[in-house]
Amino acid sequence: MYSVMLPPLARLLASDDSLVSRGYRRLQGLPPGSICTVPFSTYAAYVDFHRALVPEYRRREELEYKLIGAGDSFITEGRCHVCNHAATFTTNFDYAPGNIRNGKRVPNWREHVICTRCGLNNRLRASVHFLERNLGCSEAADIYMTEQSTPLYHHMRQHYRNLIGSEFFGDRIAYGSNDPVTGYRNESVTKLTFADNSFDFVLSFDVFEHVPDYLSALRESLRVLKPGGTLLFTVPFHKGLPSTLVRARFNDDGSIEHLEPPDYHGDPVNPEGGCLCFYTFGWDLLSQLRTLGFASAESHFYWSSRFGYLGGELLLLTARKPD
Ligand SMILES: [Zn+2]
């Protein structure tokens, strides 16, 4: 499919800003105001596309490089979809050790470009944008989110009346009940307490990489989705990896074996602890989702200088339950 469409697609994506290119949206049948994502379900299709878009990637990289300011943090301007307002975004150099080009530090764009109004970073703002516009999530939709203590949950709570969030406290609190101190609901993503066919959307942002048995978590997401419902999620995903990289695993005696340098991410309910990242996902994740029973599974690549979705090419993942 893409081999036929590539020349016009590449031109359209390169026209001033990939997000607002009306021609591209029309070509893909995307609703107005949606993110101009390019969806892929296999590594092979992506590789062809990537090769054809090398000049566009170079253009984005140059543009981003010029935005990087001196000092420990810098500001860029744009528009925040979440705030529906002109926005100022802040970026620093955390989570980007050794990322240097021509003597200049390059930030981890995915985790920054934080809107000073709503406090949401690049990938979270794009996730909300994609949910609302590309997936057409209505205010009455039944939604489950695998987080509850975060700025993103608080934003969602104001807009979606049938939203349920949770955090993970382990066995010390009954699953499905609330932690008496924080009031947050306790759920394990590998054994959710919700009934089958409960939600129109399951949302999970950078959680599954911390779950050793992530296939059970995906199976549970499928179970609790209504027919035709969508799992929208992000995880560390390496575009060049056909197969998922196992970073760490449990031995039979319960100890953890590190196969790659340990990578700990922030844990909102345990800020001093941090969460070990067990996987860097590759393209086999999409075929695993289809094998589990999802009707489709896709990665959606996007970029926009206008909306501050910087970082060359970031991606969101979706998997849809059969009707
Ligand atoms: Zn904002």
The end-to-end span amounts to: 25 Å
Q: Which oligomerization state do the chains in this entry correspond to? A: single chain
Query: Could you say which structural class the secondary elements and strand pairing correspond to?
Result: alpha+beta
Instruction: Return the CATH class of the largest domain.
Output: Alpha Beta
**Main sheet, how many strands, which sense, barrel?**
7 strands, mixed
Query: What is the CATH architecture term of the largest domain?
Result: 3-Layer(aba) Sandwich
CATH-assigned fold name of the largest domain: Rossmann fold
Number of domains: 2
Secondary-structure element sequence? HHEHHEEEEEHEHEEHEEEEEEEHEE
Which value, in Å, is the CA radius of gyration? 20 Å
> How would you write the strand order of the largest sheet?
1-17-18-10-9-7-8
Percent of residues in helical segments? Answer: 25-40%
Strand content: 25-35%
CATH superfamily annotation of the largest domain: Vaccinia Virus protein VP39
Bound molecules: zinc ion
Structural features:
323 residues, alpha+beta, Rossmann fold, 2 domains, 7-stranded mixed beta sheet, 3-stranded antiparallel beta sheet, 8 helices, binds zinc ion
Description:
This protein has 8 helices and 18 strands. The strands form 6 sheets. The protein has a 7-stranded mixed sheet with strand order 1-17-18-10-9-7-8, with helices on both faces. It is globular. It binds zinc ion. The site of zinc ion (ZN) has 8 residues, from loops.
